[in-house]
Amino acid sequence: MVATFVPFCSNFTLKLRPSNPPSILAPLRKNQRGAKLKCFGVARPHILPSAFGEDGGLRVFVLSDLHTDYDENMNWIHSLSLDKYRDDVLIVPGDVAETISNFVSTMAMLKDRFERVFFVPGNHDLWCRREEDNYLDSIEKMSKLLDACRDLGVDTNPAILNGLGIVPLFSWYHESFDREMDLQGIRIPSLEMVCKDFHACKWPGDLSNEGASLALFFDAMNEKNNIMIEKIRRTCSQIITFSHFVPRPELCPEKRMLFYPKLPKIIGSDYLEDRIRSIHGSKETTSACHVFGHTHFCWDLVLDGIRYVQAPLAYPRERKKRMNGGEDWLPFCIFSNGRK
C-alpha cells in the first residue's frame, strides 16, 4: 500500500501559453514574492468529489470555516452521509460557529459521520458578543469549547493514526505578518471598522489585538504537546499539521486583488510558520502538509517543500459565487493510503 497526498485544484486562474493548455498544469518556478511555488491543478470546469481511497484504508478529509450559525451551512452539515465517511478522519481548522450551542451541535453531527474529528479554534469560535454573560473573556470560552470537544470525543491534541502524524496548532494573527506595501491613493476603512474580532472577542488585560501578544500567547499553547510532537517527528513518515490562521503571506492574494486590501494584517502569524517548519523540517519532501482556514480562499500549493491546503465551506453567499462547483467537492480528501 502506498500512502499519498491527494492533489487539489486551487480556486484561482492561471493564464497559460500556448492557448491549448495541457491537462495538468506545470509547476510554477516562482511567484511574485520570490518564494518557490509549485501549483498542481487539473484543467476542468469543476472540482469533483474525491474518489481516492474507495477501496479502503485511512482517508483524511478537510473542511474549514463551517460557520453553522447560518442555517444553510448547518443544513449542509446535516446532509452529509452517515455511512460514506464512517471509517475516515476529518480535520476542522476552526470557525465552526459563533455560539457554543451551534458549535456542539455541529461537532456532534461530524463525530456521528467520521471515525475521528480533529479541531483547533478560529476567531469566530471565540466571539463573545452573543454570550457575554456566559464567559469572562474569549480565553474562558476557548476552554469551554475544548471541554466540549473532549466530551464529544473530538481530538484537539496531536495523534498518530496508522503511521500518519496529525498535529493541531493553536494560533492567532498579528499585524506585522503583513509585509506587502500598502495601496496608495484610495480610502480604505480601518481594521477596527471592518474586523469584528476587535469588538466580538474579549481578552484579559495583558492580551490585545495590538502588537503580537495574542499570536505569542496562542503559539505558546502548543508547547504542552512538544513530547508528542517529537514522537511524531521521529516515528511518522508523513505528517499533517493544521491551524486556523495563515502561516505565510504567499497564501493570500496580493492587496490589489483583494476586496479589502488590509486583509493581510488580520490573517496570519510568522510564529505559526516557524512552528510548522520545526515540525516538518526545512528539506523539500513529499510527506509534509499543512491545512489552514480563515480567509475562505481555496488553496493547494507547495511552498519550500510543504503542501498548503485550504478547503472552506465559507458563507452561503460566497459558495454561490464560486466558479469551481460550489460545495460539491467538500469535504476534501487530502490523504489516502487506500491506493495501490
From TrEMBL:
InterPro entries per UniProt: Calcineurin-like_PHP, Metallo-depent_PP-like, Pantetheine_PDE
Calcineurin-like phosphoesterase domain span: 58-149
Gene3D superfamilies referenced in this protein's UniProt entry, alphabetically: 3.60.21.10
GO molecular function: hydrolase activity
PANTHER family in the record: [ACYL-CARRIER-PROTEIN] PHOSPHODIESTERASE PPTH, PTHR36492
Official protein name in the record: Calcineurin-like phosphoesterase domain-containing protein
